[in-house]
Amino acid sequence: MFQSVDSSGASEETGKGGRAYKDAIKQTTATVIAAASFAACLGYFEGYNAFVEFSAGYLVEQSLSVDNLFVFLLLFEYFKVPLPFQNKILNWGIIGAMVMRAVMIAAGAVALKDFHGILLVFAGILVFSSGKILTEFLDGEGGEEEEDLSNNWIVKFSNSIFKSTDKYDGDNFFTVNSLGERLATPMLLCMIAVEISDVVFAVDSIPAVFGVTENPLIVFSSNIFAIAGLRSLYTILSEAVKDLKYLEPSVALVLGFIGAKMIAEYFGVCIPTSTSLGVVAAFLGAGVGASVLFGAEEDEAGGVTGGAEGGGGGGGIEGGEGRAKEGSVGDKRT
């Protein structure tokens, strides 16, 4: 198994009261303000409809990015990436995501121009993903157990690309062993896994934003602004993950709604973008609200149960961590 270096010194700054957490909130706020400013500029120069389309697309992409970060948390834990090194992987992951999204959006725009029926393919992907997520949530799959990533296809593929070691050499992607062999460190394997997982998630996110608008500029810019805030959002999410139990099903409802919208519009039933924006915001707001309201009640009930069962093992904490690991990497939606 992978061997991590000691990162306990960083833990003092990463809690909800720590400096890193406060900085992450400021940076996330700044990226949201930047996105809002860009939306205002679009509205001024391109009209109200462009403003609403960007706002809806950004909201969808931001919610899906949050879902993507759950997978990053699992990968960092599996590869035992020390806290000080995680930003390097996130930075490279963000750069790779921007390049890959640009390529996929360009391909999607060309496909829509030459073959409008591709909308039905996109819609099918979203409806299937929505149903899969909701089914797994209702069945409670993965809710109480840690996922074994050693059998995950993305992790296996990452491990098979390079001859590797389980030891870290600072934040280097490669190291040299005593025999003079150049080996990949867990840093590189984790980065490859992060990049591949983003491609998998893009299979949902690109069709989702094309369901809001077919304007390539708005599709690309909404993706870029959502991705730009991933690093700071990750810091926040790593602390708040236990509090967002109902976010994933709300994202599933968003995907299902957009898929249904694409099907309806293909057959001539037009749903205003402003209506779509309101529905998306309502679903996501309900998910966050339910997590805050019902999550607190469940935590209190769990604490009482844990105390009654007595003694000593910290089961309440383990249960919270198990809930934070719901879903599977690479097979979470598609």
Automatic annotation (TrEMBL):
Q: Which UniProt keywords apply?
A: Membrane, Transmembrane, Transmembrane helix
Q: Which GO terms describe its cellular component?
A: membrane
The membrane-topology field of this record reads: Multi-pass membrane protein
Location of the region described as Disordered in the Swiss-Prot/TrEMBL record:
303-334
Q: Which domain of life is it from?
A: Eukaryota
Query: Residue ranges under compositional bias (Basic and acidic residues)?
Result: 320-334
What name has this protein been given in UniProt?
Answer: Integral membrane protein TerC
